[in-house]
Amino acid sequence: MNDLLLIAVYAAFGAGAAGLLGWPAVRALRRRSVALSLFAVAVVTVLAMASGTTAVAQAMFLSEHDLGVVMTVLAIGAVVSLLAAAVLGRHAVSGSRALTLAARTVGSDGGFTAPAQPLSAELAQLSAELSATSARLAESRKREQTLEASRRELIAWISHDLRTPLAGLRAMAEALEDGIVEEPNRYYGQIGAEVERLTGMVDDLFELSRLQAGALHLTPARVSCYDLVGDALAGADPLARERGVRLLGGQVDLVPIEVDSREVSRALGNLLVNAIRSTPADGVVAVTASRQADEVVLAVTDSCGGIPEADLPRVFETGWRGGSARTPRTVGDADGGEHSGGGAGLGLAIVRGIAEAHAGSAAVRNVDGGCCFEIRLPAAGLAV
Ligand SMILES: Nc1ncnc2c1ncn2[C@@H]1O[C@H](COP(=O)(O)OP(=O)(O)O)[C@@H](O)[C@H]1O
Ligand SMILES: [Mg+2]
């Protein structure tokens, strides 16, 4: 038993010396190919065994003959283990090369193509990660392309919307200049109206760009829904009278909200103008405000007969206008189609933007005989 302990001590010294010598080599190879490292580990193992055995022989525990036998066996084992290390190293290297090549396909149109050959567990994990990254990249690129396309479309639409009134203004100005106008006052009135419409459009664009850039600074204050709705109804009254539409504002709860009242009034005003324009004469437009859980819901319901189901998800899109009022058209298109409201399809995008800027939301649904636009805003504390 004592002999065995001694043999273990000698062997440990011998092998330890080989290990200490081999350690710097293994460390130095850390940044080199994994195949080289595997090979180095096999070499260090063989050397450790050889030097351990030699140490035991030096201490006379092994005869010359037995040492020869053990060394021969060790030499054969060394060949096999070095071969195994080489084969394993080759496999690891070829797997990592294949993955490097495959990594070049990350983000390409065809998406990431994983190597066909079997990979080690770590490389397979890396490959799965690359595949997920590639999918995320493709998704965000698609989003960006859609955004870019809609931006281009919007610019085309807006250019068209600006071009038509500008052409009208130019024609009127030229006619006035030439003195061929019999009723100049009518022209002045029309010019004023067109300029007002253009100003409104530019104003909407500016508001929308601030909303989308997150540059709209809100000045929240505690207000009562009653006042908000009352002001919006008063503002929309002239248009409603002109169109013969009845405005109802009876169901307004006395709930307080903490909002930028100028912005929320603007949103309500947009909804009311849309509702009045879409409602036939003698129709009704109703505004309600109610508290639902921790939200305040401002709703504008009209008698437009309902929005086609297919259009419902699109109404809040920037630049979208319903019906035949606007199909995507190019800047050069000169149909001059009269849009009933003269808006540029920005009104509802602004409504949604304002609602979201207040951590709320905007939605639409069809109801009996018409549609109902809702703005949901977080309610303020209970006391008014
Ligand atoms: N209350 C409503 N009833 C029916 N359709 C509506 C209503 N409000 C909006 N829409 C539809 O949504 C479109 C987009 O509205 P909006 O963004 O305000 O732009 P615009 O008023 O300039 O057309 C309108 O063209 C219209 O087709
Ligand atoms: Mg509108």
TrEMBL record:
Signal peptide location: none
Reactions performed catalytically: ATP + protein L-histidine = ADP + protein N-phospho-L-histidine
Name under which the protein is recorded: Sensor-like histidine kinase SenX3
EC number(s) reported in the record: 2.7.13.3
Which parts of the chain span the membrane according to its record?
6-26, 38-61, 67-88
Alphabetic keyword roster: Kinase, Membrane, Phosphoprotein, Transferase, Transmembrane, Transmembrane helix, Two-component regulatory system
Q: What is the lineage of its organism?
A: Bacteria, Bacillati, Actinomycetota, Actinomycetes, Kitasatosporales
Q: What is a biological process (GO) this protein takes part in?
A: cellular response to phosphate starvation
The record, for InterPro entries, names:
BphY/WalK/GraS-like, HATPase_C_sf, HATPase_dom, His_kinase_dom, HisK_dim/P_dom, HisK_dim/P_sf, Sig_transdc_His_kin-like_C
Give the enzyme class: transferase
GO cellular component terms, alphabetically, are:
plasma membrane
Alphabetical list of Gene3D superfamilies matching this protein: 1.10.287.130, Histidine kinase-like ATPase, C-terminal domain
The record's listing under SUPFAM superfamilies reads:
ATPase domain of HSP90 chaperone/DNA topoisomerase II/histidine kinase, Homodimeric domain of signal transducing histidine kinase
Tell me where it resides. Cell membrane
Q: Which residue ranges does the record assign to the Histidine kinase domain? A: 157-381
Question: Would the keyword Phosphoprotein be found if you checked this record's keyword annotation?
Answer: yes
